[in-house]
Amino acid sequence: MDVTCEVVGEGTETLSLDDDATYADVCRATGYSPHEVTVLVDGSPVPEDASVEASELKLLRLITGG
After folding, report:
1. Proportion of the chain above pLDDT 70, given as a percent
2. Which of 4, 9, 34, 58 can pair with 48 through a Cys bridge, CB separation 3.0 to 4.6 Å?
């Protein structure tokens, strides 16, 4: 399956994923750990272990610090 993925502030790319891919697989395909980003579908976060059902999504990089 092909998924259009926008990394907010960095650009958009089309990913070719297995049909049983999860949102964590999307993160890894873009070079991020699932702990570094939140996946948004239609503006709402989705669990990283859920199967990809959307053809368009956004990755929002998380900022931490102290």
Report:
1. 95
2. 34
